[in-house]
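Reminder to self: tokens first, then the designed residues, so the page reads top to bottom the way the pipeline ran.
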């Protein structure tokens, strides 16, 4: 086969077309890879006032006399009546909060127009249909999603309940 016959063959023409497309895609990719994106402007630069730098910040006055009178290492010093507690730490005398019984989610039906509902059962009671805002026992329904119900108790405790898998 000579060059003229080879250039007329359809398979060669298809291969040359695919080669031309591949070269164009590689060129386009290289141009996009090497093109620099503009860098977004950052926050404005603030220059500190020389007056505030030289002056520093004002510290509150220290009560040295009170610190001296409450000598930490005095022999007559006694422990406080109650131990120090970190903020949010519970007091040892508090009774533990009893969480109300959680209902069991039997199923959910989710609608896009806000008419979602769930079937829940509290203890041995018969199953009940609930919607967002309804109350079941001590719990209020806050959200209904596919296979999941979010409840909040009167004390603010949140419970995310899911539909149990078959056989459990």
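Designed residues (168 positions):
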């Amino acid at each position: 086969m000579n060059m003229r016959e080879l250039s007329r063959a359809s398979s060669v023409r298809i291969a040359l077309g695919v080669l031309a497309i591949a070269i164009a895609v590689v060129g386009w990719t290289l141009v996009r890879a090497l093109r620099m994106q503009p860098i977004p402007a950052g926050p404005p630069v603030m220059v500190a006032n020389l007056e505030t730098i030289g002056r520093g910040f004002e510290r509150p006055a220290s009560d040295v006399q009170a610190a001296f009178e409450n000598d930490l290492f005095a022999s007559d010093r006694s422990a406080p009546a109650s131990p120090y507690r970190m903020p949010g730490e519970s007091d040892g005398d508090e009774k533990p909060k009893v969480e109300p019984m959680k209902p069991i989610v039997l199923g959910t039906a989710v609608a896009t127009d806000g008419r979602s509902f769930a079937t829940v059962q509290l203890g041995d009671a018969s199953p009940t249909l609930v919607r967002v805002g309804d109350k079941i026992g001590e719990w209020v329904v806050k959200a209904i999603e596919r296979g999941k119900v979010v409840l909040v108790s009167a004390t603010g405790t949140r419970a995310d309940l899911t539909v149990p898998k078959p056989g459990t």
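The helical segments are 3-8, 10-34, 50-55, 64-69.
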